[in-house]
Specification:
The chain is mainly alpha-helical and 123 residues long. The protein contains six helices and no strands.
Length: 123
C-alpha cells in the first residue's frame, strides 16, 4: 500500500508543480507543502509512537521508515523545484542580455553609395 501512496504522491506533486510552475498558485502550494512537511517533522520528533502507529496503518514497518520515505519525496520535489527555478533564471538572463545588446547596438555606418556621396563622386 505504501508504494502505491508514494508513487501517487510523487505523480500528483510532479504534475501539479509542472503545470503551475511560475504562478502564484504554485508558489503558495510550495510554501504550504513545506509548512506541512515541517509540521510533520515536528510531530515525528514529539510523538514518535503516533508516527509509528500511522506508519503501520499505511503499511510501513516503522515510523522512521515513513519519515525517510517522506524525505525522499521531499528531496525529489526540492530538486525539481531548484532545476525549474534555474531554468527560469537562465531564460531571464538570456532575455535581459538580448535586450541590453539590442539597446546598446549602434546603427550600421552608412556606405558611400547610400548617402549620395557616390553621386558627387561620379559627376
Amino acid at each position: 500500500m505504501i508504494q502505491f501512496l508514494l508513487i501517487l504522491a510523487v505523480l500528483i506533486l510532479l504534475v501539479t508543480f509542472l503545470r503551475h510552475h511560475g504562478t502564484t498558485l504554485a508558489g503558495a502550494g510550495v510554501k504550504i507543502g513545506f509548512a506541512l512537511f515541517m509540521l510533520f517533522g515536528v510531530l515525528a520528533v514529539l510523538l514518535p509512537a503516533e508516527v509509528s502507529r500511522l506508519a503501520q496503518v499505511i503499511g510501513v514497518g516503522r515510523g522512521t521508515d515513513l519519515v525517510l520515505y517522506g524525505m525522499v519525496v521531499a528531496f525529489g520535489f526540492a530538486t525539481i523545484n531548484t532545476y525549474l527555478r534555474f531554468k527560469e533564471l537562465e531564460l531571464r538572463y538570456a532575455r535581459l542580455a538580448r535586450a541590453i545588446a539590442l539597446r546598446s547596438a549602434e546603427p550600421p555606418s552608412p556606405h558611400p553609395t547610400e548617402t549620395g556621396d557616390a553621386d558627387q563622386q561620379v559627376s
